[in-house]
Structures are given as C-alpha cells and as structure tokens.
Design a protein that fits this description.
This protein has 339 residues and is mostly helical. 70% of the residues lie in helices and 1% in strands. It contains 15 helices and two strands. The radius of gyration is 34 Å and the shape is globular.
Length: 339
C-alpha cells in the first residue's frame, strides 16, 4: 500500500489495469490473426474473376445454341449430301464443290442482288418514315402522343405470322380490300386482280409489311433521342433563321448521330436475314422470283434436298453480311474516337 499526505491509501494493483486500459493497442501485437479467415477456411476468388463468372452462363448458352450449329453447318457445306445420302447416312466429302457451283450459278447472283435491293429499299423507308413519325411524336400533345405511341407498340408487338396473314387477306385476289379500294377509286382491271402474280409485286407487298412492322422501333427511339436535345439549340437555330430541314441537319442529326448509326446497323441485319415474312407470304414465289438469300437456302435444303448446297448458301450469306457490316463497324469506331 502507498500512504499519501492526506492519509488516503490506494493499492498499486488497482492502478495498473486503469493505466493499461487507457493505452492504445498496437496492431499486430496480439497472438491472434489480424484478419478473420473466410468461413470453412476456403480462400475467396480474386475480384477480377467476378465479371467473367457472371458472363459465363450466357457464353455457354450462346456456344451451345449458336456456335455448335454454326460449326456443324460449316462442316456440312463441304459435304455432298442430298436426299439419298441423307437416308443412307453417308457424308461424302465434296471439298469446295458446293461453293464453286454457287459462285458460278447465275441464279445465286440474281438472289444476291435481289437481297441487296430488298434490304436497301426496306432500310431506307424504315429510317425515313420512322424518323418522321418520331419527330411527329415530339411535336404532338400529351394525349395524342400517348394514342400514337400505343398504336405503334401494338403494331410492333403483333406476331409476324399473324401480320402476314392479315396482309394476305388485304391483297386477296377475290375478297381483298385493296382490289375493292382500287375499283372504288375508279381504276379498271382490279376485278379479282392477283397481287402476287409477279415476284416484284410480291416483294413490294412484303416491303410494306416489313416497313409497317419495323417503323415503331425507329419512331419510338427517335422520339426518345429528341427528348435529349436541348431547347436552347432549337432556339438558337430559329434565331439564326434556319428552316425545319436545316435545323434537323445542323442541330438534330449531329446530336443523334450515334442513334442513326446503331439503328441503321440493326435494321440492315434484321431486314437482310428476313425469312418469315418472305416465306410465309408466298414461299418465295411465284417461280422462286421473290426469294432472298435465307429463303433461297431453305428452299434448296428442305424442298430440293440439297443439304450441302444449302449449308454453303447460308455460310456465304453470313460472310456477305459480315463484309457489309464491317463498314458500319468502322463508322461506329470512328464516331467513338471523335468523342
């Protein structure tokens, strides 16, 4: 014990804990680990692996559903498989015979040119009409914009086969609405007129169908893009005396250039590989005069039983589409570099 001058007594053992409690503990001086180990003693994966693990299921699904059939299709394109070989389960190797036969066939190049013309006409109309409707949506009032948007969504959501059937009824030879409209307008020769008599007229009807079904996507995206353009830019253009076309070209287009690039890119892909509309409308007829490349490949494989040749057509279709799309990839990359 220690006796103070006032006569109070204190014990030394009681002072030691109080002083030590006030001292800060130095990290790492304890006997136990400074960081708790994961449960079960297992080490966690590095943080850099997390994105790859999240993407892995989608990659495996795409590899199973797309990559494997693509590889099998490429292998099939180098084999001479027709109806007899298919039944006998014989797969003779043909080398490049299928490709040389196609590249030397005038019918194949006719279908290629038809596919390009069909794609160009559809994409041009889709982008023009869709942009105009998008501008209209931006100018309309709240309720009219809602009504038009609902109509666009319903047209976009309609199944392709159902819309093809509706168009076949509209252009029916005997009870079609279009024949009645033309007769009511005073045109002669539309009594039981066959709108699917030629390949060109068939493709025109298919073009109307494709444009009708694709315009809502462009129009709604165009309207969404226009909402991001500041009102002060329109006001500045108006003060400079710019008309409507000049305002669009000098103000709206530069602001929405990425939208036009990616939308055109998607529309080219969708239209170039259009199959259901063309085949369901008239099965590529009459006399295969309205076939485009996907339908041409299907008819050669399923109707003519030229499976190896059909596989070669599909491979060439993919290559042509990749070459065409490479120009758009360059534009998109250039646009990103400029930004």
């Amino acid at each position: 014990m220690t006796v103070h001058s006032q006569g109070a007594t204190t014990s030394a053992p009681q002072d030691a804990p109080q002083k030590s409690a006030g001292r800060p503990k130095v990290p790492g001086t304890g006997t136990g680990p400074s960081h708790p180990s994961p449960r079960g003693g297992r080490r966690s994966l590095p943080s850099g692996w997390a994105p790859y693990l999240l993407v892995l299921p989608a990659v495996l699904s795409l590899a199973t559903l797309l990559l494997y059939p693509l590889i099998k299709n490429v292998i099939l394109s180098f084999q001479d498989i027709n109806k007899i070989e298919f039944i006998q389960r014989k797969y003779p190797f043909a080398g490049l015979d299928n490709y040389t036969q196609l590249l030397g066939d005038s019918d194949f190049w006719t279908v290629v040119l038809r596919s390009f013309g069909f794609t160009f006409a559809n994409v041009a109309l889709i982008m023009a009409v869709g942009c105009l409707i998008g501008i209209l949506l931006n100018r309309l009032g709240k309720w009219m914009r809602l009504v038009l948007s609902m109509a666009l969504v319903m047209a976009w959501a309609m199944p392709i086969v159902a819309s093809v059937q509706v168009f076949k009824w509209l252009f029916d030879e005997q009870f079609g609405v279009m024949n009645w409209v033309m007769r009511s307008a005073g045109f002669s020769g539309y009594d039981q007129h066959n709108w699917f008599e030629t390949g060109f007229s068939t493709l025109v009807i298919i073009t109307i169908l494709v444009v009708w079904g694709s315009v809502p996507f462009v129009a709604l995206n165009m309207y969404a893009g226009l909402t991001t353009v500041g009102a002060e830019l329109y006001e500045a253009a108006r003060m400079d005396g710019a008309n409507g076309w000049q305002t669009f070209w000098k103000v709206v287009f530069p602001q929405l250039k990425p939208f036009f690039l990616i939308t055109t890119f998607l529309e080219v892909i969708w239209v170039f590989k259009a199959f259901t509309q063309v085949y369901a409308m008239n099965k590529g007829g009459p006399d295969r005069a309205s076939e485009i490349l996907p339908v041409f490949a299907y008819v050669e494989g399923q109707s003519q039983f030229h499976y190896g040749l059909a596989a070669a057509i599909s491979v060439l279709t993919i290559l042509i589409l990749i070459i065409v799309m490479s120009f758009y990839f360059r534009l998109i990359l250039k646009q990103e570099e400029e930004q």
